[in-house]
Amino acid sequence: MIAVLRTIAIKEFRDGLRNQWVIAITAVFALLAVGLAYFGPAASGTVGFASLATTIVSLASLAVFLIPLIALLLAYDTVVGEQEQGTLLLLFSYPIGRTELLLGKFAGHALIMTVATVVGFGTAAVLIATFTHELGSLELWREFGYFIVSATLLGWVFIAIAYVISVSVAEKSTAAGLALGVWFVSVIVFDLGLLGVLVATRGAVGTLGREVFPYLLLLNPTDVFRVANLVGFEPARNYAGLVGIAAGGALSLGALSAALVAWVAAPLALAVWRFGRKEI
């Protein structure tokens, strides 16, 4: 089984190289990080490389918009695309199980996101740290390292969600529409809804904020990612905004990391289950 998974994963990764997905995503991440670091201070009338700490804060805020969208676009047609092209039946003519096929494809897409995130953000981090003379700051490197790991996990989450969509529909156009809908709800609507609840409950805001609100954020992987990059990172807390309530200690870094892993595992398990019952 491991050999089959490895073969499928390598094939998916090579397809990503051939289609230039890997290069494109890596370039976007690197340019985003360098651009934020250099032009971030423009609002104050100056340009130049900002500190690595400031860059992490800015990237954590913008990555929640970009990474889910890229991951969904990368994987939304994984199964339904093969089915429309008629290649899914051909794949099943080989001694490959449905679970092996789906997990192998996931490993390949996850590898694409991992390489792009590590190389893109990592290269930018080295460049920024060089110009800001922060190469020797172990604390900042630890924080940026965690940002890269959590950003990678966020990409895996939405790849898994894209798989659920792909095995649940019969047309690529439907899958594309649902993928964009998931992105819109996760990135924009969910936080607006929570903000509306906070405003509507006025008198109960204190209780809701302290006891309930932090755990509601766990229902949205983008908020889990954002909070995870604020907890224990003092410079970021001034820019926490809506998620600042949860950054005060209600959710530990370990719990948030575990939540991201759970957000990868649950949709992937659901996709495997649905694919096993899908009529081809």
Describe the structure.
- With 280 residues, the chain is mainly alpha-helical.
- The protein has one domain (2-276).
- It contains 12 helices and no strands.
- It has helices at residues 2-18, 21-39, 52-75, 80-85, 87-92, 98-131, 138-166, 172-200, 205-216, 221-228, 234-237, 253-276.
- The protein is globular.
- The model has no long low-confidence stretch (mean pLDDT 82).
State the major sheet.
Answer: none
C-alpha end-to-end distance: 22 Å
Number of strands: 0
How many individual domains? 1
Poorly predicted regions are none
User: What's the number of helices?
Assistant: 12
Dominant shape: globular
Mean pLDDT: 82
Beta-strand content bin: under 5%
Helicity, as a percent range: over 70%
Write the H/E string, N to C: HHHHHHHHHHHH
Sheet/helix structural class = mainly alpha
User: What integer value in Å does the Rg equal?
Assistant: 20 Å
Which features would summarize this protein structure in a list?
280 residues; mainly alpha; 12 helices; globular
Reconstruct the topology from this structure:
Elements: H1 2-18, H2 21-39, H3 52-75, H4 80-85, H5 87-92, H6 98-131, H7 138-166, H8 172-200, H9 205-216, H10 221-228, H11 234-237, H12 253-276
Helix pairs in contact: 1-6, 2-3, 2-6, 3-6, 3-7, 3-8, 3-10, 6-7, 6-12, 7-8, 7-10, 7-12, 10-12
